[in-house]
Structure formats: C-alpha cells, structure tokens
Amino acid sequence: MPDYVIETTGLRKVYGAKVAVADLTLQVPRGEVFAFLGPNGAGKSTAVKMLLGLVKPTEGDARVLGFAPADPRAMARIGFLPEHFRFHEWLQAHEFLDLHARLSSLPASVRQRRILEVLALVGLSEHAQRPLANFSKGMLQRIGLAQALIHEPELVFLDEPTSALDPFGRMLVRNIIRDLRAHGTTVFLNSHLLGEVELTCDRAAFIREGRVLRTLSLHDAAAGRVRVTLRVAGASNGLLTSLAALCANGSTPQETSPGMIELEVAGEDTLPQIAEHIVASGARLYALTPQRVSLEQLFLEIVGADDSGQ
Ligand SMILES: Nc1ncnc2c1ncn2[C@@H]1O[C@H](COP(=O)(O)OP(=O)(O)OP(=O)(O)O)[C@@H](O)[C@H]1O
C-alpha cells in the first residue's frame, strides 16, 4: 500500500457565506514534490492551514503523517514557510533560528550545528549576526525557508517560497527542493511561478474554489500534451481528416499556411504515427516539430483564464 504523508477526504472550510475550500480530496505519497496550483483565492493557503491544524475544517477529514492535523507527533516532523511570515525583527538571524530550533524541540547538542547548516543552505552565513529588521524581502524569505528546515522535517509546506526572490534565489530554492527530494523529504509547494513548478515538482494538482480539477505528473514527457508543427508537400484533401483521429481532446489539425499544419496530440508516443499517416497519404514530410504544452498553457485551460483577483 502506498505510504501517503497527506490524505484528505472532502475537506471543506466556510467563512460565513464564503466557501474558501469546497471539497478537497487529495493524496500525496511520501517523497513526492507536490505542487498545489490555482488562481488567487482558490483556497490553497486555507487548505495548507487546515493540514497544519491552524484552521479548523468545517467538514471532512485529513491525516498528515498518519495523524490528525496539529497532532504534536506530526507537527514535530513538519516544516512550514507561510506565505505571509511575521518575523521577529528585533532578533538576529542566528537568534531567530535558535528560537525556531527550540520550538521544534531540537536538542541543544545539535542546535548550533543545524543553525550554521541552514544559514549556509540559504546563502546567509555572512548575515548570522544581523538583525532581521535590516534584511531585504528576499533575505527574509530565505531565512523563513531556513527556519522551516532547521529540524530536518519529513514533510515541508512551502507557501510561495520564491515570490520575493531574484533569479539566483529561485535557483537556490530549486536546488534546495531537489536536495530535499533526494533525501526523501516530501514537499508540498504552493506557487504561482509555473516555470519553477515545472522544473522542480513531480506532480501538480490544479484547484479552483477548493476543488481538485485535475492532477498530473510533471515527469512523464510521453504523457504530456505536445503541439506539433508539420511542413508537408503534396498533402491530399484526406490528410487533415486522417490526422484528426490522432489529435488530443477533440481538437482538430489546422492548416496555418500552405504546406504548414499544426495539431495537438496527447503525448510523444503519437509522433511516429503522425509521420506514418503523412507518408501513407502520399504526401512528403519535410519537418515535424514537437513542442510540449507548457504548464502555464495547461493552467489557463484547466483553471480558466478569467478567475483571478478575488
Ligand atoms: N479568515 C478568512 N475569513 C474570511 N475569508 C477568508 C479567510 N481566509 C481566506 N478567506 C477567503 O477564502 C478564499 C480562499 O483564500 P486562500 O487564501 O486560501 O486562497 P489562495 O488560493 O491561497 O489565494 P492566493 O493565491 O491569492 O494566495 C478567498 O476568497 C479568501 O478571501
């Protein structure tokens, strides 16, 4: 049986008349880097808060590391970087990390070593003695990530961890997430930066109004939709009809200009069949150019482009 670190069934949260999370059913296996994607107001942060026991669900059930949310046995093994972190600005970076190490019940014998390790991990070793009040937004996000990892958690929730970071910072966070995965840590990532998600995550769930619309693997290139551009000569009238049978989701091939055809197929496995159809029709194939459909395109299609700004 798969070892799920997160399992929810029909999780729901209502604030007055506002349904923040409608009906969330989700399973995240151990060791996965899982992305939670959805437009503003989709209920992502509320869902994470319910999983952490910070918000009480109106209905439904959740298990995190096998326990009910907020169970101290689970919480000790979870790290969390909230979207809006309230920092203790009067503390120096190392004091802030020491506070969080103590809150995580890290034994005194390892605290100092872990503080130095996580400061190095997030590239802030030289700022250990600086008060957080003097930190830039990006540095605060890095130190927030350091506190989430100080106790070597099994499961880490990162809510928009790179929103304030420059490209170097984003690369650093990508590498940290890859290291976490290599060590078997499960990462639950909320992000609007779909390029980052594509590079770091194993699987993504698209949510809207607190419901999972779809989950998909981000690894399996053969399973991802592919847009194909063809350059052909001598195409017969029947070629477009014949290619239509290979298209994804009821889409149809389009002749964009003489000799140029575009179509979308469900995965790379269909590419040889396209070539076979063209040759069988008697046309000559000069170019077949596949391009994976980006996560951003999928997001716009699945979630809908007009559902922001709540
Ligand atoms: N404490 C609260 N009281 C009332 N409404 C709330 C509360 N928290 C969240 N909401 C509402 O619930 C909905 C979901 O909010 P949530 O913050 O979970 O969305 P999100 O997907 O994390 O959004 P974003 O991408 O903008 O961070 C929103 O409409 C929000 O206004």
From TrEMBL:
<feature type="domain" description="ABC transporter">
    <location>
        <begin position="6"/>
        <end position="234"/>
    </location>
</feature>
<dbReference type="Pfam" id="PF00005">
    <property type="entry name" value="ABC_tran"/>
</dbReference>
<keyword id="KW-0813">Transport</keyword>
<dbReference type="InterPro" id="IPR027417">
    <property type="entry name" value="P-loop_NTPase"/>
</dbReference>
<dbReference type="GO" id="GO:0005524">
    <property type="term" value="F:ATP binding"/>
</dbReference>
<keyword id="KW-0067">ATP-binding</keyword>
<comment type="similarity">
    <text>Belongs to the ABC transporter superfamily.</text>
</comment>
<dbReference type="InterPro" id="IPR017871">
    <property type="entry name" value="ABC_transporter-like_CS"/>
</dbReference>
<keyword id="KW-0547">Nucleotide-binding</keyword>
<dbReference type="InterPro" id="IPR003593">
    <property type="entry name" value="AAA+_ATPase"/>
</dbReference>
<dbReference type="InterPro" id="IPR003439">
    <property type="entry name" value="ABC_transporter-like_ATP-bd"/>
</dbReference>
<dbReference type="GO" id="GO:0016887">
    <property type="term" value="F:ATP hydrolysis activity"/>
</dbReference>
<protein>
    <submittedName>
        <fullName>ABC transporter related</fullName>
    </submittedName>
</protein>
